[in-house]
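Pipeline run #58 for the internal structure catalog. This entry was flagged by the ingest filter as a single-chain record with no existing model, so it goes straight to prediction. Upstream metadata was stripped on purpose; only the residue string is passed forward. Reviewer on rotation: M.T. Logging verbosity set to normal.
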Amino acid sequence: MDNFDDNIQLLIKEYFEYSQKNIPHFFDPDDYVDIIEYFIDNDMMPHARQAIAHAEKKYPDQEIILDKKAEILFAEPQGYPKALKVLLSIPDPQESMTFGMIAECYVHLKKIDLAIQYFDTLLLKTDNDLLHDTIIDIANILTDNEYYQQSLKYTEMGINLFPDDSTFLLLKSAALADSGNIDEALSICNSLIDRDPYLHEVWSLMATIYMNTDHLTDAIRCFDYLLAITPDDTDALRLKGFCHYRLDDYSSAITTLEKYCTSVTDDYQTLLTLAFCHMHDNPSRAKQLFLTIIDNYPIYPEAFTGYAEYLYYDQSPKEALEVINRASLLFPNDTIIRYFKAKYTLDITPSTDINTILQCIDKLNACIDDQPKHATFHYTIATAYIKINQIAQAYKHFTIAYSNGYTQDNIFVYLSIAAWILTDNDMFVKYYHEAISHYSNAHTLIANIIPDAITYLDSLEKS
């Protein structure tokens, strides 16, 4: 290794001497590849491109040089068509790398049949000692790009060729889970656990599957097994804490995530989750964490919105708006920041200030244009329309919010009242019953605002 490093340093020194003196290079193709790889590995891309230009001029059809050129194009925006053009220009390709890169280009260009042809050719040209890892790479590329059925073809190939290797069964399970075949994916995991209960990768995959399908208690159980096998797995500890948080088990989440933070101190997402947890049991600690995140990670808008929400629920909407105003200077195009600015402004604006309310509605409509199915956006703009007595518009947006899963904040009370005012009696009855099943004070709220509607309900019951 030391000799190799010395040779590379000598090559790089000679390369720069030739370049600075503007004299022809005398490197062979392999030397150029080493030089180019050195520049790529050290993030010296302008030099890598220049070296490729020199190498291409001296060896215009050399396959290993053109492979390196394509590799650089891979990383550029919209680089796959350019890379593919370079690779297909090779007169008589022999390198397995060429076939692999052509296949990957076709995957990204969504020409999967051509990709499969080249992947199959790649395997025919791959030495037996590299076949195992090559099949894994192909399966991962296809799974990452959501070609699950095609990925399963190669995992089955791996299972047949390497029956004692659990890696391919794990890949198959992951592809099945990603494609929605959860039961079959878990069945494979359980069969692997029966074979060897100490397989870290299997417990990790099972935990991920359960977490992604909202079976959070099962996910926590798997993370516990995982941590029993590998106690220093900080990622498992972190994800377990997130599961507790999603279950509203804030005490367990805090215990788990605090333990994680003793090992990993610079994970802003975990600190943010801890802050949200402490909002339920220790508001002063939550405030401290939010301020720490804002001071140390000001590039993350979630820190500002989290702190603003803390202030808002602490009955300080004006202070919350000040935080969001600061955030909007840093993130002027962030939809969530713009939403909170409109929401907090709306909340502190009296119903007599029609112009400000209309401005807030315009801003909320712009947020909805960005994220048309965001239920909270629709709920908030509906409350804005209520403030200016535009009941039809309010009803429309309450309905969209409900259709996208929003069931909080007395939405059924609003829906029932709006339906009654708009003389949609059938929907009024439906939403009234939803309201009284969700909120203990719903009947009283509705009766105080639209007493005639309660009389109508009584008449329905008598008839």
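catalog note: DSSP finds 27 helices and no strands in the chain.
catalog note: The two ends are 92 Å apart (CA to CA).
status: ready for reviewer M.T.
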